[in-house]
Amino acid sequence: MLVVVAIMGVLSTILIVNQTNFSKSNILNDTAYTVALSVRLMQSFGLSSRGFTSSGTTVSNAGYGVHFGDSTTYYDTFADVSPGLPGSTTNCPGHSQSAGPEARPGNCYYDGAQERVQTYTLRNGYTISKICPSSNGIQFLQSSCFVPGGGNTADIVYERPNIQAVITLNSATIVVKAVEIYIKAPAPLTTTRCVIANQLGEVYVPQTCQ
Questions:
Q1: At the N or C end, where does the chain have fewer CB atoms within 10 A?
Q2: Helix intervals (H) in 49-143
Q3: d(CA 177, CA 194)
Q4: Which domains are seen in the chain, by residue range?
Q5: Digit-coded pLDDT (tens) for 112-145
Q6: Residue of 159, 179, 180, 57 lying closest to 108 (CA atoms)
């Protein structure tokens, strides 16, 4: 009788551990797809030229984007309305028009709370473990990756009428063609999932991180 009880206890422990790990893996997948959906949502906002009110002033024709790098536990979506209103000179790479229908109010990076649309927080130990840029849109070199919270940032911005993204690092000082965001499950799992966004406007969760 004692042997049977011991065996049942061991089997129950194994089943509980496996079920817990399975649940964590599912949440990891859901978290990665939520990040990808956040990027897609900002692409939609950018294409539709959705108005945004900042400091009591409503700005139209702004780009929308996602900002990574301030923390391993959250990221921000934002309206690219700084440094000024339409008509001001923009620092956004590839969009230097300061007047007319193609003028942009923003600078293609996140300037803080006045631009924030929403903060997304990763909970229960799930983290953004690292961010890897790519200069050619294909290869993500591990030597160029950085851990959020260390001073480096990445911004993915979409501006009407283009579905393509403007992807910049460190307040638009570096322009890249793609970025890969690593999402990590809590210990004891070592599993990661990744979200890739590239300059062509593609956003997807690959089967394996590159």
A1: N
A2: none
A3: 16
A4: 2-204 (3.55.40.10)
A5: 998 999 999 998 899 999 999 999 988 998 899 9
A6: 159
